[in-house]
Amino acid sequence: MSKKSAWLLAVAAGGLIAAGCGSSSSSSGSTVGITPTSITFGTHQPLTGPAAPGYSEIAPASEAYFKWVNAHGGVYGRSINLIVKNDEYNPTETVNVVHQLVLQEHVFGIFEGLGTPTHTKVVGFLNAEKAPDLFVASGCPCWENGVEHPWTFGWQPNYTIEGKILGQYIDQHFAGKKVGVLYQDDDFGKGGLAGIKDEVPAKDIVSEQPYVPGTTTLAPQISAIKSAGAEILVDFTVPIYTAIGQLTSFTLSYHPQLMVSSVGIDPHTVASLLQTISKGKASGTGLIEGAIAIDYLPSATETSNPWIQLFMKIHNEYEPGTPFDGNTVYGMSTAYTLVQALKAAGKNLTREKIVKVIEEQGATWKGPGLVPFAYSKTDHAGYIGGEIGKIEGGKLVLTGPPLVTQPTAGTPITPYTTPQEPPPPDGIPTN
Amino acid sequence: MSGAEVAGKLQPTAVTRRGRLVNLRGFAGSLAIAVVALGLLIAVSYLVGEYRDEQLARGAFYFAAILGLTVVMGYGGKISLGHGALMAVGAYTVALLVADEHWPLAGAIAASAVVAAFVGLILGAAASRLHGPYLAGATLTFAVALPQLGNRFPETLGGENGLTINPPAPPGFLGANFPPERWYAWVAGIGAAVVLFFVLNFKRSVYGLLLRACRDDEVAAALAGIPVGRIQTFGFMVSAACAGVAGGLLTVVLQLAQPGAFPLELSLSLFAVAVIGGLGSLWGAVWGAALIVLLPNWSHDVANSLSLSGNVAYSMPLLIYGVLLTVAMLVWPSGIQGALRRVGRLGRRFASERLIRKQPLTEQGSS
Amino acid sequence: MTQFINLTLNGISNGAIYGIVALALVLIWRATRIVNFAQGAMLMLTTYLSSAMISGGAPYWVAVIGAVGCGLVIGAIVELVLIRRVENGPPLNAVIVTLGLLIFIEALAGMIWSSTPRSYPAAFSLQGYKVGSTTILFSPNDTFIVGMVAVVAALLGLLFTRTNLGLRLRAAAFAPEVARLLGVKVGRMFTLGWALAAGIGALAGVLVAPSTFLGPHTFDPILIFAFAAAVLGGLDSPLGALVGGLVVGLVLSYVSGYEGEALAPLAALAVLLLTLMARPTGLFSAAKERRV
Questions:
Q1: Shortest alpha-carbon distance between residue A57 and chain C (Å)
Q2: How far is C112 from chain B (nearest CA, A)?
Q3: Which residues of C touch A (CB under 8 A)?
Q4: Which of A339, B178, B206, C147 has the most CB atoms lying inside 10 A of its own CB?
Q5: pTM, rounded to two decimals
Q6: A164/A214 same-domain check
């Protein structure tokens, strides 16, 4: 073989190998997972198993929103695909499926990875692979450090922020009353508890009771809180345990003022669990009527809100027959933010570019959120606040105003006066 | 085969062998087997991509755990539904030693074997008189209870999020572009090969013999003067050490140790694939490890190919998995290895019958 | 003091549930010498079917009887189709078959009814009794649960010790060949044992579902602690199952209340191991140790 043909053969072989690796680079960055007509994301979710209730609705809701966008031409002609993999909330499996998604399926990035104990185990890998890790579905402060994890972005408010805002409400309206806290024994519950402690004087917190998810009873905890004389019960619980807690309180004839974080208050879910107890009463929400809650998205029960109307329309078209509740709103709102990011990044999309636009423009994006994002070069936190509301007639009625703060202890809580903008006419971001 | 050959094969080994702690000929044999297995793993790791390397790594540490189950269930005749929790012991040991005390990997993994053996000693001593479902109930409760310790001592054990270690970097001499996943496969492979070596020696040693004697007939063994309780506890310790090493290797490969990684499902899966692979045989442990790594992915692929949606799609892989477990047990009561052996025996009988038909009937000197 | 009383009452009502599920496990063990890991899943399935009946308009008691009926049928089918094939083999094989069944049923439930938990009505009021000025953690429904469990245990005990059917059941399990020679239809006894156990489990499901809600995995912890309770009390003794259930329920409740939930299963394990070290076949076991 002549030198020239050998050289050509080597170049051709090298090109084939490079093409076979499935990744390619344009001059400005990596375009893994992108074709002219599609962009592919991956996510890990607990679709089955004890952690699945509620959470398993989020990814399908995001998928429904993407289908809506795709039906309207996609983003710059690209259809958005979401590969959903089940990790059953087991971090061993999370590592497995995320490695599969990145190394075998060559996705553009990971979207909405769910869970703190699960996602923390893949953050290092994703950042080492320089794969965008967008809008993690967890309120842990783990995702906020843009310097340590430049490719990872949070989305939902830090649990401590919610705790602080609830705590401030207690301080302003229930000063001096005894407070008991029922919290999940993980980042979510402990973060919320830390926020409460930041605002409520220590002498007023008379009982702190953790529970381990999977337990079938909350009797020891509620009984202890009642014995301590708490007049206010703050719940950092998931909906099923909000309901079990209320049921136990009912048995004990214990009626404290209930305050619940955004995770645990979804009225639809909690009401349907308590409906048979309230047989004869107006609706299934008899046991949570009058509860005070915090939320950063419009409630699924707020049917007059234009965002909820938009989401219900999309829901009925693409996933009829499934419940429309807080998880649906969550999934669609996160998907909306992703489409905003894709639009802002422009037609020549690369992995580096999408990270850049979130850092540079994310804080200005308006969407279904009641409070703004914090995105910046160093701060990759999403929503930084929430709005207080009250359960009235089975619906969460926001009483406002929206408040924003930082999770660090001692930082002030300030009102956020920019009103929520209505959705764009076809429900697709225009930025 | 001629009659002379057959007579030649029946050597009276039981009479001539003395009860040495370690049979030297077996020692070299075990070493050879372990080295060959490791060599195979290293060779395969070069041929496949990074994701498969990681599957290889996971297969290696699950193999070590299933070897542990082979010791206690196959040789010892005792059921254990708690090996996932013993893996957790090893995992947390390695995580604590490497992250907090900066021990080298090899030392940490050796320590994980020791700590797990200690836990195995306690559990084995308490459970030594238990049989069948009583032991199952005790080990089941153990499997559920132990990982919760992580939540009870969140400051040291990290609570729900557990502990992490930094990804172990491949040593310099392998080159700058050596994929980390391949290094994890090698580390896990070396660990599994060491466990394999020890289990092979254990099997051929006096203790292995005594353990099997206790399994076969406890009363007869006691009458023969064997301290049944102590032997069975020792077997449990060895088994726990294997699981501990497996857990330590898990921490190395996945860089995590947390309660959510050791749910009850892990203990039950290890138990199920150990039996389905073929209890008491080391090849059975290989099939078991392959099952536990490949079966979930395979059932996901089958489910995906059915183009389902929603709840049906989510639960289909599990449905397939459950059906396969049940069917495997019904179709192969002695496990995959047992079925293969039967096929092997049928094949050999078939081949030898053909050979016999071909041979003349008269005896010849050296045929 | 109130906390102690409430924890005790909570332990008793939980313990009753562990006890009745343990009864089902004991029944299957006595009848077929197999441990049924799928017991929790089977009772979850019957509770879902019962909940579907209620959604369809059936009154509560009809749905309860329907649940038990479904349990009887499902238990019989499982025994005939699956367990019959592994009854004579190594015991580990039967365990794995029940494990496979457990996974299958939970996946099936997730497919049909999704993982969203649903409520189930209680038979009686869930409002706790008033004692003096405080309300205690025990409601009329809890009384009903404890009462039902005691009745079922008594009936089961009577069945086994006082009736011919019970004698045949025990004979079929203890010495199937001899029983066959004596004219006992062993296969039918096995099927009956499984059917009864599943029926009892179904009852347990409708008793506990109002306070735990109903999801594909809700009853998993209940099975584990019921198994511990059955082993603690002795797998051959219905009374042992009840006592075991009570002990496990109380231990879990006290430790959760005074120490923390994370340590409760470990405490249950300690109690179980200590009991088994003293009596390796459970508290109320009849089997004698053969010492050499």
A1: 9
A2: 7
A3: 2-3, 6-7, 10, 14, 107, 110, 114-122, 126-128, 130, 135-137, 139, 208, 210-213, 215-218, 220-222, 253, 256-257, 260-262
A4: A339
A5: 0.88
A6: yes
Residue C166 phi, psi dihedral angles, 5° rounding? -65, -40
The tens digit of pLDDT for each residue in C230-241 reads: 999 998 888 899
Instruction: Indicate if the pLDDT at residue B20 is higher than 80.
Output: no
**Minimum-distance CB partner of C262 among B148, B321, B325:** B148
Q: Is the Cβ pair C272, B318 closer than 8 Å? A: no
Say whether pLDDT at B24 is over 70: no
In chain B, what are the helix, strand and coil shares in percent, each to the nearest 5? 80, 0, 20
Does residue B367 fall inside a structural domain?
Answer: no
Q: Is residue A235 part of a domain?
A: yes
Contacts of A224 in chain C (CB under 8 A): 3, 257
Domain assignment present for A397: no
pLDDT computed for residue C291 by the predictor? 53
ipTM associated with this complex: 0.90
| Domain-embedded: residue A139 | yes
CA distance C125 to chain A (A): 8
- Examine the domain organization and report whether A167 and A65 are in the same domain: no
Which amino acid appears at position A2 of this protein?
Answer: S
Share of chain B above pLDDT 90, in %: 43
| pLDDT reported for residue B2 | 54
Q: Determine, for residues A90 and B317 on separate chains, whether the beta-carbon distance falls below 8 Å.
A: no
Residues paired with C269 in a beta bridge = none
From the number of C-beta atoms within 10 Å of its C-beta (0-12, 13-18, 19+), residue B65 rates as buried
Q: Which of B:69-98 have CB within 8 Å of C?
A: 73, 79
Q: Is A81 in the same domain as A139?
A: yes
Residues of C within 8 A of B73 (CB-CB) are: 92
Minimal C-alpha gap between B277 and chain C (Å): 12
Output the DSSP codes for C109-142.
HHHHH-S--B----SS--SPPEETTEE-S--HHH
My answer on whether A33 and A150 are in the same domain is yes
In whole angstroms, give the CA distance from residue A157 to residue B143.
35
State residue C197's pLDDT score.
94
Residue A183 sits in a domain of what CATH number? 3.40.50.2300
The span from the CA of B285 to the CA of B65, in Å, is 9
- φ and ψ of A382, to 5 deg: -90, -120
Residue numbers in chain A where pLDDT is lower than 70:
1-28, 277-285, 431
- The domain of A56 spans 29-157+302-384
Whether A45 and A89 share a structural domain: yes
Whether A53 sits inside 8 A of C115 (CB atoms) is yes
